[in-house]
Amino acid sequence: MPLEKAVFDTGQNFFQQLHPDDRPRFLALLDDLKLGADSYQTEYRWLRDDGKELTFAESARAFFDGEGNLIRVVGATTNITERRQVEELVRKNEKLARQRAEELEKLMESAPIAIFISRDPECREIVGNRLANQIYETGHNQNVSAGSTLGEQLDATRRFYRGGRELSPSELPMQTAAREGREIRDDKIDVVLPSQKTICMLGSASPLFDSENRVRGSVGAFTDITRHRAAEAELLDSQQRLNLALAVSNTYAFEWEPSTDLVKRTASFGLVMGIPVEDAGFDTGQSYFQRIHPEDRPCFLSIL
């Protein structure tokens, strides 16, 4: 704007550069000026000659003659465009943060795994999602921390074991992750619940860091593998019973893949054939064929 226009102007020119949506409100402020109500504070948008939109904050006072007629308005105007832009950016970021927080909360509550989170570096307080609370036999937003990273016990209603050895609170995955500042992967823990039911949990834990890279807590995700482990044990038991039955009956089972010539056999093959058990599990069809009596080979090959 030229300097001479910046110093001297008319109210009409100024009004024409007011944002159209702000003109009625600004005119109403001027109309309301009177003795005893002779000042105002407002904000408005103003259109620069190049079309750029600015935002101003203005404070002014009116002066009247002896008959109450308006003769002068004196005020100060501040360009707050950048401040409003920053405030708008902050509002958008806050809205986005609220949306992300809501999405994360919904995700945690609907996730098919148990998720725990601690927001303090010593893990004195740990809360879980819906499935975690269900598995741990506790209520919504209840603290389930067994103890701190320093080993202090806070809750003895659950007991934890790894490989048959009972763990102290400081040895648990989330406490270890927070104390050592590192990720704990694929940790298998047996948990004795308040109902005295024992479950097996498999999962990982990771530390949480603040803006200065200091540990501020930890998060853990675990799956109840109790049924899976029981099924594995049952399958192993069945396999052992099958091997025993095959050995007693002088029988073995096999599987041959022609494309690779690989033969898989049960351990009882070693007992039947009189070879070391460790050599009985895997073989090749060619190697097996060499053990067949020469007079039986043509018949065996014709079957294949």
Mass-distribution shape: elongated
Sequence of strands across the biggest β-sheet = 5-4-10-9-8-6-7
Q: Tell me about the largest β-sheet.
A: 7 strands, antiparallel
What is the chain-wise order of helices and strands? HHHEEEHEEHEEHEEEHEEHEHH
Distance between the termini: 98 Å
Q: Share of helix among residues? A: 25-40%
Say how many strands there are: 13
- What structural category arises from helix and sheet content? alpha+beta
Radius of gyration: 40 Å
The fraction of residues in strands falls at 25-35%
Arithmetic mean of pLDDT = 85
Number of helices: 10
Please mark out the parts with pLDDT under 50 across 5 or more consecutive residues, or reply none: none
Please provide a written account of the structure.
It is built from ten helices and 13 strands. The relative contact order is 0.06. It is 35% helix and 28% strand. By secondary structure, the protein is an alpha+beta fold. The chain has a seven-stranded antiparallel beta sheet with strand order 5-4-10-9-8-6-7. A three-stranded antiparallel beta sheet has the order 1-2-3, with helices on one face. The chain has a three-stranded antiparallel beta sheet with strand order 11-12-13.
